[in-house]
Design a protein that fits this description.
CATH topology of one domain: inorganic pyrophosphatase (n-terminal core)
Shape: globular
Helix content: 40-55%
Oligomer: single chain
Strand content: 15-25%
Strand order of the largest sheet: 3-2-4-5-6
Distance between the termini: 19 Å
CATH class of one domain: Alpha Beta
Number of helices: 23
Length: about 625
């Protein structure tokens, strides 16, 4: 794995570090240079930008009227409310689509209207607006349909709505096609041509939130607006994190304020969801917990069964019913994990047996009857394991349905655009797509995309790489630094958790295997290791680091201070601190290096805080480990 890092102009970092001291961040002054360096790397160079990034407020939200199509959409929606027309919110079946329905439907009801909703069944109906659903809705008296997280390429559905006498408002965040946007009463999408809305990376629920915000600005009193916006913020934060959009700009406001609000949920559905995910302990959640413990349970409804359960979960008032739905989502998520494991095992065997698949620049792998609800997340797993753009396809007789995920260097939607004639339908983003096509076209698609990728990617693009922020010796890692780093949370795309590199650190104890595939290690700072000497380190490791603390050296939670009674002291007490480190899934890598206590290694790591009451404190998480040179 290649380690890469881009340098930062020192003058800019020093200037910003000085300005950060005036922001009353409540962090140690010595941590500001590192914090400034990290902000510069995220494109934040001015103190006012840093203040908004580190401490976003509700007032930092953009005016929804800056989004193209918003005024026309609001005028039609307000007229529907005033005339007591039947309104239907038509969403998608993933977390983003279902939470978007919850937000907009609730806002309409708060402002005096009434709205029904439709979530398509992934298997029976598939993605996007369906003409037959629109026609049935018109026959039932619906006069306004608002799409959320879908519809930007639904030209046929828009025409069906026009014929049926139904007004259509499209709200979406997916990229429009080359043919423009559908003919609708209004199209609200920050990515459409001619829209200069500042945040182009909203998820579908984020766009629905902006429509809800605009409606409430015109229909609710100011005090009620703020209260309801903060209430919706919890839900849009879940969608924003789950949809893996960049957590910058307005998305950072959603995520930061929403995660803080999830400490004290009021909605019975949210409470039950946190309970079943074992997160209802009153502390602020992390983006990782939302992505890996909350979002999968919400997604499981649409992947394995009917996504209507998610809308009901957030709508019920009785705690008993909320717990019942949350429990069902938890069971569906377990079924999803089993199915995903089965498909990944099948794909793994294919990689072992088919050299052409191992050598492909763009992986296209298909199977008969694979569950269509899990092929998207399976594609993500293949990309993570093999480092190639990947399409996973489920064949069902003459039809095939697929999902794709990509690497940073490859625009997957453009790749599909290059062979649009092969598909029945497709859409998505640069790094995530969904599509349907005749099964007969799968082989042609595989050959075309591999050639397309080979013309645009180099072997270096496919080589696993690890980006780290800067080199940071372990003697610089302190609880004060960890508190400063926590100001950058929540982490995600566009704002990754800071990864640091430390060179020549000493392994102070044998590698300990945890649950068959993880490892626990203990490291000493390089300067301490040199001062003590390799043999002393090995001796300390062999004794289980039963160290004697000096009366003049403070003990820090999560850290051990190794001392010697007879040798010369290390250069400073900071250099004699040792650190716990967890290597998740790194058992094979460490065994391959044949690491022994006393070995010197280079590590890439993140800095965290373990909350355990007995052995908590500072804790490193390894991203990679290699033998030190020399």
């Amino acid at each position: 794995m290649r380690w890469i890092s881009n340098s930062v102009e020192g003058r800019k970092a020093r200037e910003l570090a000085g300005a950060l001291g005036d922001l009353r961040l409540n962090v140690a002054a010595g941590t500001l240079p590192v914090l400034a360096d990290l902000l510069i790397r995220r494109g934040i160079e001015r103190p006012e930008e840093a203040a908004r990034f580190l401490a976003p407020k509700l007032e930092d939200l953009h005016d929804p009227m800056r989004m193209a199509g918003m005024r026309a959409a609001l005028e039609r929606l307000k007229a529907a409310i005033d005339r007591k027309e039947k309104v239907m919110v038509y969403g998608d079946y993933d977390v983003d689509g279902t939470t978007a329905i919850v937000i907009l439907k609730t806002a309409i009801e708060l402002c005096g209207g009434a709205a029904d909703f439709h979530v398509p069944h992934r298997i029976r109906e598939g993605y996007d607006l369906r003409e037959d659903v629109i026609e049935r809705s018109a026959a039932a008296g619906v006069r306004l349909i608002i799409s959320v997280d879908t519809g930007i390429r639904a030209f046929g559905a828009a025409e069906a709505a026009r014929r049926a006498g139904v007004d259509l408002i499209v709200t979406d965040h997916h990229l429009p096609g080359t043919d423009g946007v559908p003919q609708a009463i209004a199209v609200v999408n920050p990515n459409q041509a001619g829209c200069d809305y500042p945040c182009k990376y909203l998820c579908g629920a984020g766009v629905a939130f902006k429509l809800a915000q605009g409606l409430m600005q015109e229909r609710l009193e100011a005090k009620d607006q703020a209260r309801m916006l903060m209430s919706f913020m919890k839900v849009v934060a879940i969608a924003t994190i789950a949809d893996a959009v960049p957590l910058v700009g307005e998305n950072r406001v959603f995520a930061k304020l929403g995660l803080a609000g999830l400490r004290r949920p009021v909605n019975p559905g949210l409470k039950a969801l946190l309970e079943v995910a074992k997160l209802g302990d009153g502390r602020e959640l992390t983006s990782t917990e939302v992505a890996f413990r909350i979002a999968p349970r919400l997604n499981a409804a649409g992947r394995m069964d009917a996504a209507r359960d998610v809308v009901e979960l957030f709508s019920v008032k009785e705690m008993e019913r909320a717990r019942e739905i949350a429990g069902r989502l938890d069971r569906l998520n377990s079924e999803r994990q089993d199915e995903e494991r089965r498909i990944m095992e099948s794909i793994g065997r294919r990689f072992e047996e088919e050299p052409a698949l191992r050598d492909a620049y763009c992986v296209v792998v298909d199977g008969e009857g694979w569950h269509r609800g899990v092929i998207g997340i399976t594609a993500t797993r293949v990309v993570e394991k093999y480092g190639r753009p990947t399409l996973v396809i489920s064949r069902a007789g003459d039809e095939a349905y697929g999902s794709g995920r990509s690497i940073a260097a490859f625009h997957l939607l453009n790749a599909l655009e290059s062979c649009a004639e092969m598909f029945s339908r497709f859409g998505g983003h640069a790094h995530a797509v969904g599509f349907a096509l005749p099964s007969a076209n799968v082989e042609k698609l595989r050959a075309h995309l591999d050639g397309y990728a080979r013309a645009r990617l180099t072997p270096a693009d496919l080589e696993p790489q690890l980006e780290f922020e800067r080199e940071l010796g372990l003697d610089e890692v302190t609880p004060e630094l960890q508190r400063a780093l926590s100001l950058l949370e929540p982490f995600g795309m566009g704002n990754p958790e800071p990864v640091f590199a430390a060179r020549g650190v000493r392994l102070m104890a044998p590698v300990q295997v945890v649950k068959e595939k993880h490892v626990r290690l203990r490291f000493g700072a390089a300067r301490y290791a040199e001062a003590v000497g390799a043999q002393a380190a090995v001796t300390a490791a062999g004794s289980g680091l039963a160290v004697q603390r000096s009366a003049t050296i403070p003990a820090i939670a999560g850290q051990s201070v190794a001392t010697r009674e007879t040798a010369d002291p290390a250069p400073s007490w900071r250099s004699s601190v040792t650190f716990k480190a967890m290597g998740w899934g790194m058992k094979d890598a460490c065994e391959g290096l044949q690491l022994l206590a006393g070995d010197r290694v280079d590590i890439a790591y993140t800095v965290g805080w373990n909350e355990h009451p007995e052995f908590g404190g500072l804790e490193l998480t390894l991203r990679d480990v290699v033998r030190a040179e020399g």
